[in-house]
Amino acid sequence: MFTRIFGKPKQETNALATLDKLNETLEMLEKKENVLQKKAAAEVEKAKEFTRAKNKRAAIQCLKRKRLYEQQIEQLGNFQLRIHDQMILLEGAKATTETVDALRSGAAAMKAMQKATNIDDVDKTMDEINEQTENMKQIQEALATPIGAAADFDEDELEAELEELEGAELEEQLLQPAIAAPAAPVPVQAGRVPARPTYQGGRRT
């Protein structure tokens, strides 16, 4: 049990330590590669100088050393490629392990929850809820039932009385006299002015 509990953090620590070591090695190889590239470039410059000085033998020796540096550079490049591959594989394995651990934890939590929740308890709880709902429904119906004098009223008689009231209201509206409409003004023809009265001897004609 203790191995299972403390084993995972130790494995994760080992994976992180390995990745750190690979990163350090990769940086060291890159530094060496840069140094060798500078040395190879320097040998080329020396070869040019010896060529201008007509010292062919010395120029060839410089080119030979350049070739040796280039071989070491190529070898260091292969080493770096292998380290990159190892880092990618290790990171992938670490991600896979973390995913499996997470899924395992989720499955354990689900199992514990299912164990804590029994199907019989669920059925019992639902039965209690249904029973309480039915009781509350009966209580509400009992409270809504009329009591006393209101319980003796006949619904059919009340509806008939309501229909009589509606009929009387309609008959009263039909018997009311129509309100006379106001007289319309007499139109005056366009362009015609009414004649003005004249007076003769003090009388209007």
Automatic annotation (TrEMBL):
<comment type="similarity">
    <text>Belongs to the SNF7 family.</text>
</comment>
<feature type="coiled-coil region">
    <location>
        <begin position="12"/>
        <end position="46"/>
    </location>
</feature>
<feature type="compositionally biased region" description="Low complexity">
    <location>
        <begin position="182"/>
        <end position="197"/>
    </location>
</feature>
<feature type="region of interest" description="Disordered">
    <location>
        <begin position="182"/>
        <end position="205"/>
    </location>
</feature>
<protein>
    <submittedName>
        <fullName>Vacuolar protein sorting-associated protein</fullName>
    </submittedName>
</protein>
<keyword id="KW-0175">Coiled coil</keyword>
<dbReference type="Pfam" id="PF03357">
    <property type="entry name" value="Snf7"/>
</dbReference>
<keyword id="KW-0967">Endosome</keyword>
<dbReference type="InterPro" id="IPR005024">
    <property type="entry name" value="Snf7_fam"/>
</dbReference>
<feature type="coiled-coil region">
    <location>
        <begin position="122"/>
        <end position="175"/>
    </location>
</feature>
<dbReference type="GO" id="GO:0016192">
    <property type="term" value="P:vesicle-mediated transport"/>
</dbReference>
<dbReference type="GO" id="GO:0005768">
    <property type="term" value="C:endosome"/>
</dbReference>
